[in-house]
Amino acid sequence: MTKQRLAYIDLMKGLCIMLIVMHHTDEAFFDSIAPNLDNALQSFRVPMYYFLSGLFFKTYSGFTEFLKRKVNNLVVPLLFFHVVGFIVAGATFMLLHPGQGFNWQAVLYPATHRFWPYTMALWFLISLFEVNIIYYGLTRCLGNWLLRATVVLLLSVVPLVLVAGGRHITLPFMLDTACVGLPFFAIGNAVSQAGLIKPHKADRWGMAVFPAMAVVIYIGAGHIDILEQEYPSWLQLYALPAVAILSLMWLCKNITRRIPVVATWGQYSLIVLGTHDWLLTPLDTLLAGAALTAPQLALLKWGITMAAMLVIIPVLVRLVPKFTAQKPLIPIKTS
User: Fold this and answer.
1) How far apart are CA 97 and CA 91, in angstroms?
2) Rounded Cα–Cα distance for residues 335 and 329 (Å)
């Protein structure tokens, strides 16, 4: 029997992926609306995915089952979207730029480089996989929640130490990004353990709390780029985003009915994350000469991309469910 989805979770994921795609479309778009708006949104839009994953963290029957599930849900889609994304990018490049060379060797860059072209958004799946493995180890080795929280807090300082004093030290396979995401994942798990994921009569207060918190976040947010290792203070990196995520969750819990299009983007946000660059890359070339302002052009490209997802999602879900985390590629035996 299929479990009933929580409408507000899909709403949060849908809003988040919409913001992420727009940021990848034009990094200056939100600041063209209001100064510091991009910083305010950047402070929580990626951390919120760590948080939402933490809400549904389970140890299952043991590490073998846990690992298989995470490989099916994160590693398999990562490889699929990356390889197919490079094929799409290469074919598009040769079509739009005939006679010019395409760097096919860059398809191997995720194993050797921190940055790579065409499918860079997939770095998050690497990071989230690592966060899951680290948190599983903490739950198994540290049964005391206070001790576990202490370790998480200590690890949250690691990224700041790596860039302290003008240094720019990166850890292999983006482990520094996992240290940033771990506190949000732990908060999500704590919220779930406390039973706050379920509807509650106090949820109506979220409608009043969120606007006030939104003002606080907008005023207090600093510039954050987890991948580029650009961090503000510890409070701006963790405390303010946590407040933003929790207040947004409190607000969205008042939404009891699914919002059709946003719910689709949210439910299949993994597919949106993995495929939006397939469209943005050629759109950048095709619309380069459009007589539009930068914000107008960004809205056009964003609108085309998000609308196309309503076709891409059902096609991929139907044709390759095992490569898009809809069904397990690696068989899992449950007791």
Assistant:
1) 10
2) 19
